[in-house]
Design goal:
The chain is mostly helical. It is built from 17 helices and no strands.
């Protein structure tokens, strides 16, 4: 005798879904300090899995291969941080020259506002070196607080390599756990899905990395040709920020434009940077990303934009970086169950049906 199915009215289903979303968002906000390092460690683990597999094929024990991958990750990230901090510190040596340009611009702005609106903002007096230095000293705590919020916390910095280490060390065990969760499914199918998910994330990360390298080379070449100081720094920062869709490239080009405006005597340089930026972004959007990254994540543009907004609201910059890979994982998980496949279809790209032949139309 078949047991009766539990029936839930549609309005209760909608209410339960809304309640689940509210609880989930509350949990993501409260557990941010733990979840962000957890996801970041997981993505680093996926990125270094091929390296550890190759080392294990060479008869190197898993614990040793995991430690080597961890040391390499720390060296790469640490080198990047040292490079960024060193270049930011070198900006202070250009401060005196920049202050003269700032005073010139503010004088022109004060004259224009006084002539057209009868308002004198006295920006010229506020743009002196002493005023700016005092302003930075007074707000140094808030600036450092903003940086800590962006990174997460010191605990988060320690947890990321720790989580990466355990993900790499126990990756086979975690695979068995997932197979046991979906024990009603064919174990070979679940294992194939897990492997496919790893490849999707790895291909996405590697593809984005290749695009970042090419963009860095193009940016550095353009800034060097224009004679912009710190061209290597601006080029690499612009390429790194490109990992954040839509908003990242904007902030990546805003820095060199402002710097060129303050350090160069002509408006040609910031305008030239903006034009070159448009050309590079056109090449990246129409050729580099489609050819290199391709449709690895298979997410439609609306879901991508919505995920970026939600991720940025909940987790800040880290949420915007993690939004696309996390949604790709969720889409693959939805594909495992027939009842959740419609949600996978909602997240995925729209499939364009081929045009029917003329004889089919006539029939």
């Amino acid at each position: 005798m078949r047991s009766p199915k539990f029936y839930l009215p549609p309005y209760l289903k909608a209410l339960s879904v809304m309640l689940f979303i509210i609880v989930l968002i509350f949990f993501l906000i409260v557990a941010k300090s733990l979840l962000v390092p957890l996801f970041m460690g997981g993505f680093f683990a996926v990125l270094f899995t091929p390296m550890t597999n190759w080392l294990e094929v060479k008869k190197i024990p898993r614990i040793l291969s995991t430690i080597l991958a961890l040391l390499l990750m720390i060296a790469l990230v640490g080198g990047l941080i040292v490079f960024i901090v060193g270049n930011v510190a070198s900006f202070t040596r250009d401060f005196e020259n920049v202050s003269g340009r700032v005073q010139q611009v503010t004088q022109q702005f004060d004259a224009w506002t006084l002539q057209n609106f009868g308002i004198d903002e006295n920006l010229d007096e506020k743009a002196t070196s002493g005023y700016l230095k005092n302003y930075l000293d007074e707000n140094s705590k808030s600036i450092s607080g903003f940086l800590f919020k962006t990174v997460g916390s010191l605990t988060g910095v320690v947890l990321i390599p720790l989580f990466m280490f355990f993900f790499l060390l126990y990756r086979d065990h975690l695979t068995q756990v997932i197979i046991s969760i979906y024990r009603d499914k064919d174990s070979a199918l679940v294992r194939m899905r897990i492997t496919s998910l790893r490849k999707v994330i790895l291909n996405y990360i590697v593809g984005v990395g290749k695009v970042m390298v090419i963009l860095a080379i193009l940016n550095i070449s353009a800034y060097t040709a224009l004679g912009i100081k710190h061209a290597i720094f601006f080029g690499i920062i612009g390429a790194i920020l490109n990992i954040i869709p839509y908003v990242g490239p904007f902030f990546g080009v805003l820095l060199p434009i402002i710097y060129a405006f303050l350090t160069k005597d002509s408006l040609f340089y910031p305008i030239a940077i903006l034009v070159i930026y448009q050309v590079i972004q056109t090449v990246e959007g129409n050729f580099l990303t489609p050819k290199i990254v391709g449709g690895n994540v298979n997410l439609n543009a609306f879901v991508t934009l919505l995920g970026l907004l939600v991720g940025g609201t909940i987790w800040g910059v880290a949420g915007m970086i993690l939004a696309i890979p996390v949604m790709a994982i969720i889409r693959e998980i939805f594909e495992l169950n027939d009842s959740t496949k419609p949600f996978a279809l909602l997240l995925g790209e729209e499939k364009i049906n081929p045009k029917p032949e003329k004889n089919e139309i006539s029939e």
